[in-house]
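re: ur question from yesterday

yeah so i grabbed the chain u mentioned. its 242 aa long if i counted rite. heres the sequnce exactly as i have it in my notes:
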Amino acid sequence: MKEVSFSDLMKNIKKYINDEKSLEIITRAFECASKLHEGQKRQSGEDYIIHPLSVAYILSEMKADPDTICAALLHDTIEDTTMDKNKLSKEFNPTIADLVDGVTKISKMNFSSREQQIATNTRKIITSLEEDVRIVIIKLADRLHNMRTLEYKSEFKQKENALETMEIFSPLAYHLGAYQIKSELEDLSLYYLRREVYDSIYNVLEEIKDELDTVIYESLEKIGNALADNNIPFEHKERIIC
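ran it thru and got these structure tokens back, copy pasting raw so excuse formatting
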């Protein structure tokens, strides 16, 4: 998986955000997060800042607003650094501080039983939805990047995180309409929970990929032509399945 840089993030953001003030606060959020996480490493050995950068990048692909991008860059600062909510509010704005604080509260979960964990997690997430749905969107992006880098965890942690993802975060992504995140979360969870099933499905898809591409492409062409006949614009990529 390609390591995301700040220039990659800004290139993506500038596709839909042109306001200089917004770009400036995003830059400040990155610089602040970089300074606060300086010297911290992930289990992969990479600098910790790569994680919030990657979370922000995932959200930029969803065209998230500037406050959400800033909160993604800063989402671990309250939990893992000397930063607190009041400082964030003064340094940036109250909305960003609330978003970071909300993600932190969801992350701080430690329960005695599986049933209690699922029930309490769900209640906390529903509460976050009532406060600001962006809190949960950031948490989903956070979970997605953590799942993408799960290989560096122990086998026990891999299965534990994958099961929690299948039980809580994948259904949540579905109900929020974040279907691409839901799909990838399920794929990654299956990879760690039922590797033999994952490999079997993967091999079948590889065998029929070209045929499926052709069928889907022809169908899209027909739909596109029908829409064009009615002066309705329609675009699609030539390659459907990667």
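noticed a couple things. The longest helix spans residues 195-229. also Confidence is low (pLDDT under 50) at residues 237-242.
anyway ttyl
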